[in-house]
Amino acid sequence: MMANRFTDTLFQLVHSLEKSEKRHFKLYIKRSSAKEDLKIIQLYDALDKMEEYDEKILLKKLPDVTKTQLANLKNHLYKQLLASLRLLKTHESVDLQLSEHLDNARLLYNKGLKIQALRILEKAKELARANQKYNTLVQILSLEKKIETLHITRSTTEKTEELAREAQENSEHINRVTKLSNLALLLYRWYVLHGHARNELDEADIKAFFKNYLPKDVNAVNGFYENLYLYQSYCWYAFIRQDFLMYYRYSQKWIDLYSEQPVMISVETGHYIKGIHNLLNSLFDLRNYDKFELVLKQFEDFSKTPAATEHDNFRTHTSIYINSAKINWHLMTGTFQKGLELVSGIEQNLEKYALFVDRHRILVFNYKIASLYFGAGQYSTSIDYLLKIINGPLDLRIDLQCYARLLHLMAHYEMGNYDIIESLIKSVYRFMAKMKNLTVVEEEMFRFLRNSFDVSPRLLKPELEKFLNKIKHLEDSRFETRAFAYLDVISWVESKVYNKTMGEVIYEKYMKSKKRNYKGFTSSKTLSAA
Fold first, then answer.
1. Fewer CB within 10 Å, N or C, the chain?
2. What is the pLDDT of residues 353-376, one digit of tens each?
3. Domain definitions of the chain by residue range
């Protein structure tokens, strides 16, 4: 239902407005429109009150408007809404301020007021440089060069030389930023399509891809944006290869950039939010419990700041990423039942932000929620969430598609549905083999499940112990880590061997880790005291 609610672009825009934006639009349109244009207010009011877009119902609410007129009226309303938002939001956005400066300079230049235009362009350059907006700086320099070339402006020769030098330096900088941002984008695309590197072939493929796209002059990288995209590229490269320590290091470098230049938090808030999300994911993969808690607390504090609450986009993503991190916390500490308390609120948030949430994010949440229910022993509900993935499109995250099927198989095994297990094993095995997605852990798992149907309960425990011994040493294998990151098979088997719940097994590991960290902390204090 969420996917079909917002099918009309104007309807989407109207329903994305906040109270202050709605109030401003009403004042703006009444002040700037002729009486005959006030039909768009009737259209706006009708759309605002609709829960789902339906053109037939809309036309009934507007008896004086024909179907042909409606298309023109909608187009006019869309433009007026954007104009109103621009007026309201210009002071909040550096990009909008720079755009306004450029528009004003062009208007003055076209009026023949060249010196006034140059003064505004000088102000715009200062603002662009201060906020490292080099793409806009290209447009500013271009207009400035045009005026200096076509007219006598009494500028010194030194000024024109400086202008040429600045334009050249800016061009080289943008070229590096473009190459690095392309690399980061293409690596992210690779991950969304394929997930993690599955074997040596994938590893060789992603290494060649990275080397081919990495700029040759990478040593010349400087400035915020060049470093930002360089660190992002290394983040995705490490994450795809499951080099989680490298992933952590570059996620931390990403966030350190903002610590060094705090002004960029309000300029590039979206990248900052994404960076914290990646840092939390890296800490989850490394099972660094203490730092995970610390960063999550900092993220929650940040979510209440003006920078995080200024736009729908930022509010949406902080909410989604914080909820994702909270689920991860319960998955890695084994507190599944506690984690289930979050589900209702998360689903309400996903409904609330349906306009802004992509399918990939919903797919990930469905898998994480299914994992919580599985860990809590509520296998039937886990299956309900897994079926949303299994019965959905196959164009995203092949790795999660595979793990959803594997977890679905395990849930039926737990429920004792042995009459369908054999056909499920064949089906899942065929799917994963077709996707070339089988790891050694999974091969061993299929072998165990296939061989355990006819084993009596008395003999099952020794078989489980054999299975555990076969896969335990694979925890250190990089190509097997995804099997444990997305599906903690070892803890599941240990719960069977030691007659404990899966939650108890994982929680004990968490507590042992806390004790180790505490001992390390106290011994380091003793050493420093000595």
1. C
2. 776 777 888 888 999 999 999 999
3. 2-86, 93-155
